[in-house]
Predict the 3D structure of the following.
Amino acid sequence: MAESILAIIGGGRWGQLLLSIVTTMDAPFNRIVMVSKAAKRTDIEILPTLEDLFTKYSVKAAIVVNAAGQHFETAKQLIDRGIHVLIEKPIVPLLKQMQILIDQATDKDVCIVPGLTYRFCSSIKEFSQIVAAKGIPKRFVFRWSDMKNEQRHGQVKRYDHTITVVQDVMPHIWTILTLIFPNTKMSMHSCVQDNSSADLRLSMNTIEGQVLLRRDGDSRERFLLLEYDSDLLEYDFSEQKPGALTRQLEYYFSVIGKGKSSQIDLADCLNSVHITELVSSY
């Protein structure tokens, strides 16, 4: 019987973190292989290129976590070979690219799962229930800041300089806001941005909001403020409990087991890419 191979494409901080989680799970694979020209490990096989991977192994599933600008071509090559893919955010930069991947995956009977980790964050779901019980706010302010040279999971967090902060973070913002305000549509009104900061004005249906993004800040911040007629509701999730990544991987493996992408996954792929592309165009 042929081996069942899971490939992690990308050996950066996030790829190393995913690898550390997968190796502690009861994952449905005989072997895990990483594709990276930079990573150096002795506990796992590392191949330098996709061509080397395809030459040596028949791969069942992959996690695409290399540079954002490589996601589309990498996923396209994997899907073309019938390999299921989980693509980390930002999935791809353009909606037309996302549609190409979905059409190709449908043709090849391949599963696509978006790497939108906050979909699996239990505390956000709990907060959304509090919001639902309290009612619709008038306004919200969402502040998201990363600290310069921040240590996360034992490594210095370095962002991808080839993409803007909007391209990097907007998939998270979209995921979180659509969880907290379900059955609403995000509409953009304005965006002032550069490579490292952004000030967005948007709405979730009738709820007006401001989103402030920053790289290289003085502190790590993940803060949401909801304004009501008579009071405020605050949510600070700068320090999340572990588990969301594990749940995302468990979900991915369950989708592979079923052999079919869910319509929710495909819609989240399209919608998160669409809103990120829209905001990036300002």
The mean pLDDT is 94. The helical segments are 13-22, 50-56, 71-80, 95-108, 122-134, 165-180, 244-258, 263-280. DSSP finds eight helices and 14 strands in the chain.
